[in-house]
Write a structure and sequence with these properties.
The protein has helices at 25-32, 55-63, 88-101, 142-146, 160-168, 190-203, 205-208, 213-219, 235-241, 284-297, 318-331, 380-387, 408-418, 459-474, 479-486, 490-502; strands at 42-45, 68-72, 74-75, 81-82, 103-104, 110-116, 119-126, 137-138, 148-151, 154-157, 223-225, 231-233, 254-258, 276-280, 301-306, 309-314, 343-347, 351-357, 425-428, 432-438, 477-478, 506-512, 515-520. By secondary structure, the chain is α+β, with helices and mostly antiparallel strands.
Length: 521
């Protein structure tokens, strides 16, 4: 049974289960009978003849992600009616025993018996296992055969790679600090190294006072001691400052593919699979700059005339692309298994996706990414080095490759918001992290605002144009969406919308739920 349910929300089928105490079996069943969903935060088991053998797989799957709820005693084939001959006490004890004795680590589930439509059912809240204890697996089958995760409405066994990534989170990974024995320090780019050392010496003069360049590079993890105590580059040093790190890591690169349609299967009219494709190599700063240049070549740019000046607006803000690619290269999985895959930038007719091997690390989740205080770095040495690695395109004006302050995703969202676009959508799994940005529908030269006598020199005028641009592309807008687009309070957003309504440019449309939406007149 795959139904997402959260009894704390207005629409309980949005989001994850937060607490078994807040799970209302009656509300759940009433809603479940009305709708269908392919999310899977609740698993229903009939259990009339006893607890099914596969229930332990579901327990593992819930514990390895965000938790969930197991409901026993309902018959799916009978429309979630109480199961005949269901022994609630027996199943409750069996489920509690399975959580405590059959799982490693044990699951501290909240199991209770509830009354429903004159019968008894068992409801068990399965909490998420702490990151440092994952994976949670079926004890008798071991971690590589007994670890599961939810996939649609069922449970999928984790691959060996995914199990290794979960085990990796029990302590700080050090793949980026690995000394590359077959490499030489002469493979480091002198210009990048010089810029890096100047930045570090200027930022921390007391720390680096008296240190030679070689000792400074050793201190910062750019180099390390090899088997014969020789100075050798580290993986982090080669990726950030090497001339050609792909000599040692052929898939430590970026691939760009521009597809003609909205999926990889669609072909162009002439049968071409790609409108453009290329492989970008070099150190991280070069790959970021060259990937951005390649994306720029494949973006349309619209021109707006505002008074006596012209403003060019591209389909995607370059700042957002740059941050997404830099973050992907900085936070990707550099384990030997992860290095079999590259960072991908896929451009479709309606969106752009930036994909990196390895999911989110540490305390960062798709819910808190980009928020204050949410920052974890899988590659601590590489992240620290990139803070002081000069960005090759326009340095020093464009500064350094990353800030490494946990602000990368927030900058992406701010850039999209500033251009009147939908927020980026993060998607996380144990093996991949994907950032998707929806294309901005650029318009022809000129602006409808000119005929409305709205002055664009002030911020209000620019806010109004941003709102109209969103309405043209999406069809309508709500006050909360306007608040996000403009980066202002909902009260200010409402005043901006009212201004457009008063000028006859927008009109209120039908309500969707409790929110009023506005469309073009």
């Amino acid at each position: 049974m795959g139904i997402s349910y959260d009894a704390t929300k207005k629409n309980p089928f949005e989001g994850d289960i937060v607490s078994i105490e807040k799970f209302d079996i009656n509300e759940f069943v009433n809603l479940a009978r009305k709708i269908d969903s392919d999310t899977a935060d609740v698993e229903v088991k009939t259990a009339a003849r006893g607890l099914s053998k596969d229930v332990v797989e579901t327990l593992s799957a819930f514990a390895n992600r965000s938790g969930g709820t197991v409901v026993c005693g309902l018959s799916e084939k009978d429309g979630l009616a109480p199961a005949v001959d269901f022994n609630a006490k027996k199943i409750s004890e069996a489920l509690s025993q399975a959580c405590a004795d059959k799982m490693e680590p044990p699951i501290r589930a909240s199991v209770r018996i509830e009354e429903f439509e004159g019968a008894l059912v068992v409801v068990a809240g399965i909490p998420e296992t702490e990151p440092y204890q994952k994976p949670c697996y079926v004890k008798a089958r071991g971690p590589y055969d007994g670890s599961f995760v939810r996939a649609g409405e069922g449970d999928r066994r984790l691959s060996r790679y995914e199990v290794d990534r979960l085990i990796e989170e029990r302590q700080q990974p050090r793949y980026d600090a690995r000394v590359i024995e077959e490499a030489e320090t002469s493979e480091l780019d002198p210009e990048l190294v010089d810029g890096f050392l100047k930045r570090e010496r200027a930022a921390s003069p007391r720390v680096f006072a008296g240190l030679s360049d070689d000792d400074a590079l050793l201190t910062m993890g750019v180099t390390g001691k090899g088997k014969n105590s020789e100075s050798k580059p580290t993986l982090a040093g080669l990726m950030a400052l090497g001339r050609h790190p792909q000599k040692h890591f052929p898939r430590g690169n970026v691939t760009l593919a521009v597809f003609p349609g909205t999926s990889k299967e669609e072909l162009a009219k002439d049968g071409a699979r790609f409108l453009d494709s290329r492989t970008v190599i070099g150190p991280v700063p070069v790959m970021v700059a060259e990937t951005l240049a390649a994306v720029r070549r494949n973006m349309r740019v619209a021109s707006y005339v505002e008074g006596g000046s012209r403003r060019d607006v591209s389909e995607y803000p370059e700042v957002a692309i740059r941050e997404a690619v830099a973050n992907a290269l900085m936070h990707r999985d550099y384990s030997p298994e992860g290095l079999a895959s590259q960072v991908q930038v896929n451009m479709f007719a309606d969106r752009i996706e930036v994909v990196n091997p390895g999911g989110l690390y540490g305390t960062v989740t798709v819910d808190n990414i980009g928020t204050y205080g949410a920052s974890s770095s899988r590659n601590q040495y590489l992240s620290r080095i990139l803070e002081s690695t000069p960005y090759p395109e326009g340095y020093p004006e464009k500064g350094f490759v990353v800030e490494n302050k946990g602000t990368g995703f927030a900058q992406i969202q701010a850039a999209l918001r500033g251009q009147g676009m939908d927020p980026a959508e993060p998607e996380d799994s144990l093996s991949l992290f994907v950032v998707t940005m929806k294309k901005k529908q650029v318009l022809a030269t000129g602006s409808v605002l000119a005929s409305a006598s709205i002055t664009l020199e002030n911020k209000m005028g620019k806010d109004l144009e941003s709102l109209l641009s969103v309405v043209r592309s999406k069809g309508s807008i709500s006050t909360s969406e306007a608040s996000f687009v403009l980066g202002v309070s909902t009260a200010t957003a409402y005043r901006r919308i009212k201004e457009l309504v008063d000028k006859g440019l927008l009109v209120s449309a039908d309500k969707q739920g409790r929110a009023v939406r506005y469309k073009l007149t």
